Structure formats: C-alpha cells, structure tokens
C-alpha cells in the first residue's frame, strides 16, 4: 500500500472512525434480492404513474462509482455485476445519524441499499434508499482518468481496475465466456463428451514446441507442462470414447507477441469414423453459428477489415496457395534447391538438412499467411511437417490435413489421424533424426502412445482451434492480451 498517498491516508482515517463507532467496515450478512438490470428491465417500461403504485422494496448492492452531494441529500451511482443504477439518499428518510455516517463513504466503497423504485425529473430510474449499509471500505481511490491511460501494461497488470472503469473490456470478456459456453453446447448437442487430460507430461508431445520444465519431488522425475493434449486424447479414442472434446490450457516456453502468450486456451475435438473433410464442415458450422449469434449475421469487422463468414469458405491446396499468393515458380514445389534458394532470398534461417517439405512450410508462413484475410481452408500439407496426420491415398507426399486462416493468422489445425502404428513409429523416428533446435532436441519416442495405437485406433479425425485467437476475431481485439484476463508480464520492479 502507498502509505504516502494523501487520499489513501484520508480513507484509512475514515476507517478508524468507523471502527471507533463500532461499525464493521467489512460485514458479510447483507443479502441481495435484485440486480440493477432486474430493476431496469422490469420497471423501465412503466410510466411514472405506474411506478408510484409499486410498493415492493428491493435490496441491491454494488460499488459506488459516483457521488453527488446536495447537502441534505445525495445521489450515487452503484455498479453491480449486471450494470449501474442510481440511488437517492435523503437525510429526512434515512435519518440524521445514518446520513452523517454516509459522509465517511467514498467512491470505490461497496454499499448495500434497501428501498423503493422511482423515476427522477430527468427520467432516470432511481432507488429511493430507506436503509443502507457500508459493505466494504476501499482504501485506494479508483483512478479518475483510467480511460486516458496509454500504458497498456498497467491495464493488463491491474485488470481489476480495467474491468471496473472500461465497459468495453468487460464486454470482451463476457463475449469470451459466452463463446466458450457456445462451444460446449455445440459439441454436447452432437453427442460429444467433454474430457480432461493431464497438464503434466512425462514426455512433451502432440506439437513441436519448446515446453516448460518442472520437477516432481516425490517421484523425483522431470515433467513438462502440456504443449498440446493430442496424444492423451487419442488414447481415449483408442479406449472407446469415439466423440470427445477438451477445452484445455496449453503452455509453450516461446516468444510473446500480439498472437502468442506462453499460456493459452485451445479446443481439441476428435470424432471416430470421420475425415478431415467432415472436420472442415464441422468447423464452418461451429464458427458460423457463433458469428451469427454474437454479431447477428455472417460478417464482422476486424481491425477495419470486413470478414465474410458466409459458407462455404474458400479451400485451396497448400502447394496451390504458394503459386497463387506466394507467386513462386512451379519448380520450387518440386526442386528442393529451388525452394532453398527462395528461402535464402527472403532471409529465412534453415536448419542443416531441412527437408523440402519444411522449407515449403517456411515459405508458406512468410509468403502466403499474411494474404489470407477471408476464412480460408488450406489443405494437403507436406507429410514432412505433419507427423501425426494420415497420408493422402493418391499422393503419399502430402497428408489429409488442413489449417484454417483468417485475418492473416492461423485459427485451426485439423486432419485425418494417422492410425497406422508402423507408419507412426517411422515418422517419429524421422523426427528424431531431424532434431535441430532446443524444442526438437526434447523429442523422445512416446512408447506408450505407440503401444496404444498398436491395440488399434478407429479411423478418426481431429482438430485444434485456438480459442484466444478466435475471440480476438469475435471482439475486434488487436492483441491476444486483450482477451486473456491476466496475460503473462514481467514482475514489477
């Protein structure tokens, strides 16, 4: 606490006065009967005359956001979980002692009110307080000009104040919460079941990413925070759970940007006896239903660009996208040396012995992704960069996989799952042989997973959708930090 703050010292002095008067500044026995929205929605449409006939009393509680003192009466604005409402405290009604006690209340305090509803001469719905109580004495004043802050880190670090002072921020998170509930409803209505898988993994797997390491003392073993739940979810499919989904937290010990946070939320779902084609259809249905529910139609504006979600969405092959958007020569798709030549011209760093498929994937990220504004499925990725995907029957050099892009970023990744245990082992071994950076160096054969699919995994398709990035699109948020309550920040000095 900032002991030098004059305003804080004044509030601490008021706290002492309350305690001296025998008043508990932090009681927990006030009970609420209504919210601000209840009163606005129920009585807002009534005429002034009709309001006068309402005899019911209401108990509300909330944080004081504004005080207007008129000597013998005061108007206050209180904010609860559903919005704001005005209250009127009149000395002749609440009594002299209580009204003098109110002089110790400040903006930011929590108050409990009991009274009747009426409308002022300016037509504002107002609670005429008959009784009131201090519920919490706040010791720090709320920032008066929070809207004018340019220090975004302060907003993220003190999200509690950001939520209080900025209705737009609260709206973003309410949309996020609604979106996650819609995802749950969508899948449960389609006979999927929600499951939970471990966050602590003995072997990092399911995605190529640098994990966070930790240590379990009792077992004396090295563990890794989950980079993806895929291999555990597939174990459940093998166990007979044919339609499953998990809304999971993943952790990747990598960079931070407007699209990356070390801790993030992902949806993964798996459906037996389905293909990547059905996953694309399911994705269209899911995301379109959410856009329609939240925005009232199939279009929205993201960072001043209009996105059209009207199905069906564009589909383009991985190699074709390099020709159409990357403007590469056809020879680049067939000749590894040509691909490396283009990569070097772009200044891309390549590991020694990088496969042709990986070089093409690097070119795609640089030359194609930024141009994918409208919702677009890119299909049939190189087998070399898709170790868990089923090979395409007509062309074994590519797999039955897609990624969904919009606004120049990846939102989803899905594929027909590789369920051939011999091929899967060979792909894992190939990954080990191509070890390069630190993330690759942690690759280890997951013998338990290989054993599991040797028992037989049914034909299955699966997909992962980045919830944070999707919520960014839904809420027109420029940074992933705007849609995560508490993004990771450096410690304050």
List keywords for this structure.
34% helix, 2 domains, BirA Bifunctional Protein, domain 2
How would you describe this structure to a colleague?
- This protein has 493 residues and is α+β, with helices and mostly antiparallel strands.
- It has two domains: 6-136, OB fold (Dihydrolipoamide Acetyltransferase, E2P); 164-325 and 368-482, BirA Bifunctional Protein, domain 2 (2-Layer Sandwich), CATH 3.30.930.10.
- 34% of the residues lie in helices and 24% in strands.
- It is built from 18 helices and 18 strands.
- It has helices at residues 6-20, 36-43, 48-52, 91-94, 96-101, 152-157, 159-165, 167-188, 230-238, 276-295, 318-324, 330-334, 336-345, 356-367, 421-433, 438-441, 447-454, 467-475; strands at residues 58-69, 73-80, 83-90, 110-119, 125-136, 193-194, 200-201, 213-216, 221-225, 243-251, 263-272, 299-302, 305-308, 314-317, 376-379, 401-406, 409-416, 460-466.
- Strands 6-10-11-18-17-16-15-14 form an eight-stranded mixed beta sheet, with helices on both faces. Strands 1-2-3-5-4 form a five-stranded mixed beta barrel.
- A hairpin with a 3-residue loop joins strand 1 and strand 2 (73-80).
- Helix 8 crosses helix 18 (467-475) and helix 11 crosses helix 14 (356-367).
- The longest helix is centred in the middle third of the chain and has 22 residues, at 167-188.
- The model has no long low-confidence stretch (mean pLDDT 93).
């Amino acid at each position: 606490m900032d002991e030098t703050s004059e305003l804080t010292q004044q509030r601490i002095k008021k706290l002492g006065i309350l305690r001296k008067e025998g008043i508990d500044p932090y009681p927990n026995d006030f009970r609420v009967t209504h919210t601000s929205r209840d009163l606005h929605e129920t009585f807002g449409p009534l005429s002034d005359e009709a309001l006068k006939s309402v005899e019911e009393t209401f108990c509300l509680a909330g944080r004081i956001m504004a005080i207007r003192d008129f000597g013998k009466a005061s108007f206050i604005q209180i904010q609860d979980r559903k919005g704001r409402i005005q209250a009127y405290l009149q000395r002749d009604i609440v009594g002299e002692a209580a009204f003098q006690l109110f002089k110790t209340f400040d903006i930011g305090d929590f108050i409990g009110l009991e009274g009747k509803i009426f409308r002022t001469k300016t037509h504002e719905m107002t609670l005429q307080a008959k009784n009131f109580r201090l519920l919490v004495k706040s010791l720090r004043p709320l920032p008066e000009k929070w809207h004018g802050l340019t220090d975004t880190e302060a907003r993220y670090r003190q999200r509690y104040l950001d939520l209080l002072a900025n209705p737009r921020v609260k709206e973003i998170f309410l949309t996020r919460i609604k979106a996650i509930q819609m995802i749950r409803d969508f899948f449960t209505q389609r006979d999927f079941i929600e499951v939970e898988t471990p966050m602590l993994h003995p072997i990092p797997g399911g995605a190529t990413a640098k994990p966070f390491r930790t240590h379990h003392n009792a077992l004396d073993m090295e563990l890794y925070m989950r980079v993806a739940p895929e291999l555990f979810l597939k174990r459940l499919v093998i166990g007979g759970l044919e339609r499953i989904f998990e809304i999971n937290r993943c952790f990747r010990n990598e960079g931070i940007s407007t699209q990356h946070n070390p801790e993030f939320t992902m949806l993964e779902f798996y459906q037996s006896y389905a293909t990547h084609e059905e996953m694309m259809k399911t994705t269209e249905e899911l995301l379109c239903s959410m856009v329609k529910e939240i925005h009232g139609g199939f279009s929205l504006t993201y960072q001043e660009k209009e996105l059209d979600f009207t199905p069906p969405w564009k589909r383009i092959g991985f190699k074709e996208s390099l020709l159409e958007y990357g403007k590469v020569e056809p020879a680049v798709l067939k000749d590894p040396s040509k691909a490396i030549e283009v990569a070097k011209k772009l200044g891309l760093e390549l590991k020694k012995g990088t496969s042709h498929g990986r070089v093409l994937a690097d070119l795609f990220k640089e030359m194609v992704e930024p141009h994918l504004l409208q919702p677009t499925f890119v299909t049939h990725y190189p087998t070399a960069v898709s170790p868990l995907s089923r090979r395409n029957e007509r062309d074994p050099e590519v797999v039955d996989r897609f990624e969904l892009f919009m606004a120049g970023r990846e939102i989803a990744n899905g594929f027909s799952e590789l369920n051939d245990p011999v091929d899967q082992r060979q792909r894992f071994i190939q990954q080990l042989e191509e070890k390069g950076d630190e993330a690759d160096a942690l690759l280890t054969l997951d013998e338990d997973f290989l054993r599991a699919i040797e028992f037989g995994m049914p034909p299955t398709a699966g997909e992962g959708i980045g919830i944070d990035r999707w919520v960014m699109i839904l809420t027109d948020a420029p940074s992933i930090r705007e849609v995560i309550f508490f993004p990771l920040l450096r410690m304050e000095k």
